[in-house]
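Q: Hi! First time doing this. I have a protein sequence and I read that you can turn it into a structure. Is that right? Here it is:
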Amino acid sequence: MYGKAFAPEYQGSLTTLSVNSSLTDVLSEGTERLREAERSGRPDEAARCALAVAEAHRRLGQVRDADRAWKASYRSAREAGDTAAMAWALWSGGTLARQRGAFPLAWRLLGLAAELGEQGGDIVVRGYSLAGLAETGRIQGDYEAVGRLHEQLLAEARRRGEARHTVWALEGIAQMHRNTGEYDKAYALFEEAAQIAERAEDRRGHAWALRGLADVLSVRDADTERALELLARAEASCRAMNLSSALAYNHKMRGNVFYRAGRYAEARDLYELALEEFRAMSEPRGEALARLGLAKSLARLGHDRAETAAELADLARVLERSGLRHAREMVTRAQAEFGLDAEVVR
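A: Yes, that's right. Below is the predicted 3D structure, encoded as structure tokens:
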């Protein structure tokens, strides 16, 4: 049995904030409480308020502000001698690094966060940090290495009855099944995640689960209208909470659905929108995926063949350097789709 979802990253005087609080509200209240803590000389409270500020900035796509805030949180936690708060700050920094595509840094920071969480006796930050490591590996396409960790974290979350973490783990495992073509398994896991998230009032987790269901319905069943309906529901939650990154991925997925349905002009428009959103928040993985979708849509609409080849070749180089193996394979498939895999681009 799962209880109501909660946000453990909202700590100290900010524990009254909900997992569904608007990020602009979190940022406003967190900043105010942070200033109060700094004025009163309370580094322990400052560390926890700065953590909420960092997470709000990160989820709003404000990368530089998020970077400053998590580092400020870590400095305050170190000053207070609060090992668990130091771990939370490193978790935030590692999560930001992954979002920016800095995967070696993400591995280092999240690994340190897990160690400090264990030292500080905070099982939640330890779990979140291990989950961050698992997600980093999954995003890079290293499913064999992190599949077992996902399953371990899912078992721990189920045992504790922690809805939000259970939803995260189910969605991660579902995504790996989806990417390896096991659509029925993926759908069942996304469906379970959606049900748990809805009952626990976890709107963020529910929105991501709906996105996953829409993807499977589109690619497995060619059910375009049902997929678009689910994405519209997910978008409403993203907008209500100002989830910039999730909204951009929603738009990118809507582009995928249109592309699979042969509605290339509509797909192009959504990919262009998502690309603009990803660039605004400095999210290179999302940017690369939107570029790929846009290149494919333009090719279907009669774009110059040499320019399409050049764009795909550049994307292949970008993804090779960044270590995003699954996305790199997607580019290879696109090159084959348009008969460009053997063409040399200078």
